[in-house]
């Protein structure tokens, strides 16, 4: 069995390529389910109900978030009422939404999708390692497949989490930096790992934003609006093959869709 985790979807260009290519990707890779980080899906920052509906209708089974979860106040009712979204589990327990969800993935198997937020170079937040331990203790015994989206800045932070959870979860896949890393591997305990699965958005950009605006602010300190870039759009993600009985990963593949690399 296989699943796909899609890297940070940035704005409408990122959403459009997901919608356009996901049916063919499901068929090509024989995917059981799809997860996607969408904390930047609404004009480059945050998420709203209409975009949540757009992505879930397109075939995304679980949406994960990150440090931009609460950039838009309209996300609160989405987190409180909708069933296919998780926010970082190491937010305070009073925060709207949930940090883990369980879904049926076929063959009588169930999968838990967990979202965690890193602390190195990030906003102050509760310990993600303790949050992971708490969730694993609380999961039903029959949930063997466990996917962790670790939304973190530092590669060292992500590697620590991957090693810490090796043998206890199916995959630890990093998001947030918007740059795919070439370190996909399966750890000795059977956990698939990659520091960052990349970005779904414009490659002719600075992490999805128009280069001119970012350069202007960087060089002059003059504030500008970091508008979403629209050219040379690619989908970056990672496909993980797993044993449904044990939850251990059997294979991991980094994929890039766009730029002539994938023909529908």
Overall morphology? globular
Helix content: 25-40%
Q: Main sheet, how many strands, which sense, barrel?
A: 8 strands, mixed
Uncertain runs are none
Helix-strand makeup class: alpha/beta
What percentage of the residues does DSSP assign to strands (E)? Answer: 25-35%
Gyration radius from CA atoms, angstroms: 17 Å
Number of strands: 14
Mean pLDDT: 96
What do these coordinates show?
The protein has 264 residues and is α/β, with parallel strands linked by helices. Helix content is 26%, strand content 30%. It has 6 helices and 14 strands. Strands 1, 2, 3, 4, 5, 12, 13 and 14 form an 8-stranded mixed beta sheet that branches. Strands 6-7-8-9-11-10 form a 6-stranded mixed beta sheet, covered by helices on one side. Strand 8 (143-151), helix 5 (155-165) and strand 9 form a beta-alpha-beta unit. The protein is globular. The two termini are 23 Å apart.
Provide keyphrases for this structure.
six-stranded mixed β-sheet; alpha/beta; 264 residues; 6 helices; eight-stranded mixed β-sheet; globular
């Amino acid at each position: 069995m296989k699943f796909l985790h899609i890297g940070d979807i940035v704005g409408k260009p990122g959403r459009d390529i997901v919608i356009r290519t996901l049916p063919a990707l499901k068929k090509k890779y024989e995917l059981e389910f799809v997860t996607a980080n969408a904390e930047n899906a609404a004009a480059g920052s945050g998420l709203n109900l209409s975009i949540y509906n757009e992505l879930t209708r397109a075939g995304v089974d679980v949406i994960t978030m990150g440090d931009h979860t609460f950039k838009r106040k309209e996300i609160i009712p989405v987190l409180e009422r909708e069933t296919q979204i998780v926010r970082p589990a190491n937010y305070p327990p009073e925060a709207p939404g949930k940090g883990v969800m369980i879904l049926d993935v076929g063959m009588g198997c169930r999968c838990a999708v967990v979202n965690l937020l890193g602390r190195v170079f990030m906003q102050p937040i509760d310990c993600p390692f303790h949050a992971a331990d708490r969730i694993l203790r609380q999961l039903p015994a029959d949930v063997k497949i466990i996917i962790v989206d670790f939304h973190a800045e530092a590669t060292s932070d992500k590697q620590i989490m991957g090693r810490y959870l090796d043998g206890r979860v199916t995959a630890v896949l990093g998001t947030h930096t918007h740059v795919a890393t070439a370190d996909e591997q399966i750890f000795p305990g059977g956990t698939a790992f990659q520091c960052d699965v990349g970005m779904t958005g414009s490659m002719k950009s600075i992490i999805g934003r128009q280069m001119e605006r970012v350069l202007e602010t960087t060089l002059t300190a003059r504030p500008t609006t970091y508008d979403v870039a629209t050219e040379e759009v690619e989908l970056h993600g990672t496909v993980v093959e797993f044993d449904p009985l044990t939850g251990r990963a059997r294979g991991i593949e980094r994929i890039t869709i766009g730029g002539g690399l994938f023909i529908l």
